[in-house]
Amino acid sequence: MQRHFVLVLAALLALWLVSLPPGSLTIATPGNHWALRGTLILGTGYLAIGCMSLAIILAARPVRLERWLGGLDQFYRLHKKLGIAGVLLGVAHWLLEILPKWMVGQGWLARPQRRPGGDGAAAVPLQAWHEPAKELGEWGLYVIIVLVVVALWKRIPYRHFARLHRLTPVAFLLLVFHSVVFMPPGYWTAAAGPVAALLMAGGVVAAVLSLSGRIGFTRRALGHVESLHLHEDRVLEVQCQLETPWAGHESGQFVFATFHRDEGAHPFTVVSSWAGDGRLVLAIKELGDYTRALPERLALGDPVTIEGPYGRFSFEGPRERQVWVAGGIGITPFISRMQLLAQGGARQRPVDLFFSTDEEPEPLMTRLRELAQASGVTLHVVVPPREGYLTAERISEAVSNPEQAEFWFCGPNAFGDSLRGGLQRLGLPSSCFHQEAFEMR
Predict the structure, then answer these.
(1) What architecture is domain 322-436?
(2) Which of 20, 95, 327, 432 fits a 20 to 30 Å CA distance from 294?
(3) Domain boundaries of the chain, sorted by first residue
(4) Is residue 419 a contact partner of residue 325, using CB atoms and an 8 Å limit?
């Protein structure tokens, strides 16, 4: 996602630069810094609304982009980076507007000289809308800043974050109004204009879908909780029986499940393989207030809404040999895949599965060993408190020439990033390490 983020920023920056009149970024004469300030105000505003538009488009879960961005879990990371970048650029835009004026008031800067004739009303489109657009844009930025802080502050419970985050489309629409009113005619007729128009139009559609509750609407199915089983490691296994049509899923994919309307949808990996019978099994780890309370809140027969499936954790790649690495609850997509292999529903290939877990709950371990034997997967269990952390070097000791394999990782992001770096130092190409980024906030 870092590469995609850099490419997006570079493309937006390049479009802005080629759209500028010659000499816009130079200070040719003393006092001309005011002209440069005006150019930078417009530039930071253009880049900010471009980033925010793309962020809100990605938040609408456009599944057609999964193929190019590597899955919904991956482009949620891009959504997060673009949102932060948009806010930072918006703050820079705001500071460029107010700080020089404040410095003039303090006597630190000379007031800019007005050109003879000034800026006539006829020369400034939408002049009558400037004041409301300025006020609404400023309030929209304040709201977006608060929402980004709430999203990044993990101590705020998810349910509060989700409710507050619903204000994002409203704030975005205020910023679009601000941008349309203040973008000069020269931008609209240059390369930057059509791109900005397309991005803002897409963002407006995504915002309307969000406000009307239509995001993912066509990918939803209704059902009920058929069985519940709380394992010794406090992982809750929820079997759902769908009652409306469902297109099915592949092993490694996840869904958004809504058990309680006041909490909203949460992403969970599907543990079961698809048999066309409407049955889905979700494995839910206690990672927050809501998931910790689920064993007491859920009951047999409770309604459930399932949206999806999403994700490109497909176990497909150019290399024949595979190494799977799971950290904690990250074992779930691999359980689903082993079930499929055991049923003969996928092509067999040499596979080593490394499962890093702080404890070994017997029901789960028994199930893993049985599935591994039935699917032809070689299982390696690593218990860090007892044996130390799983590293690239330890994998290379257990598996010969790991740099020639295809790696599939699901677990904590820090664990995955560390493992990726270690394997790349051993010679593994970055394109052969597939990591599910199961962190939607």
Answers:
(1) 3-Layer(aba) Sandwich (3.40)
(2) 327
(3) 2-112+128-211, 217-310, 322-436
(4) yes
